[in-house]
Amino acid sequence: MSNADDWFDEPETPESWTARVDRLARARRQAETDEPEVDDWIRDSARAEPSGTRPRLSLRTAAVVSALAICALLGVLAAAGVFSGSSHTAAPPTIPTQPVTRATTSTVVTVPSLVPAGALKPGEKGAEVKKLQRALAGAGYSPGTIDGAYGSATTAAVMRFQQAQNLTADGVAGPKTLAALKKALEAG
After folding, report:
1. What number is the average pLDDT over the span 56-62?
2. Is there a domain that residue 127 lies in?
């Protein structure tokens, strides 16, 4: 009786008989030596490959190649300055902190104040906001980029300044905050 649907039955070829005999012989030898069974079907297929195949790298060679690749990557990153740890921050500009009036024989020179003339609130933009940002930076409260936009970084700097001055920390640069900022800048 033929079992045509038995997928697990090995085909009846001379090679299959040879492979089966080899497996049985190895199983007998393994049983005699009490060593764990090794799955040799992988080795059998490796032996069947043509002799022109590329040899596999040893573990030591692979480790050396990997270590060299990592060293090269770290060298490139170090050359690019990734590990420098220093950041380029420009010092705040030094501008007089109070109006100075000098009388000469015929002219009067007035230097403008760093503190804005009127109250400012988040969301505003312009030259007065830049003036506020420069004043905050000069007082030691970094507002981030001095860009003339009263955003979250400027609001946070105003709130830190207000807290340090025991003012209501609402983030709005009102008359009391501007007066305290002017006084802090004059004190240096």
Report:
1. 79
2. yes
The CA-based dihedral angle spanning residues 102, 107, 108, 111, taken in that order and rounded to the nearest 10 degrees:
-90
- Burial class, 156, CB count within 10 angstroms (exposed 0-12 / middle 13-18 / buried 19+): middle
Task: Please name every residue paired with 101 in a beta bridge, in sequence order, or none if there are none.
Answer: 110
Half-sphere exposure of 88 (CA within 13 A, CB side): 1
- Residue 64 falls within a domain, yes or no? no
The pTM assigned to this predicted structure is: 0.42
Q: What single letter denotes the amino acid at residue 42?
A: I
Maximum mean pLDDT: which of 3-7, 107-111, 125-129: 125-129
- Within-domain flag for 121: yes
Looking at the structure of the chain, the number of domains it has is: 2
The DSSP call for residue 169 is -
124 inside domain: yes
Domain that holds residue 154: 114-187
DSSP code per residue over 52-85: TSPPPPPHHHHHHHHHHHHHHHHHHHHHTTTT--
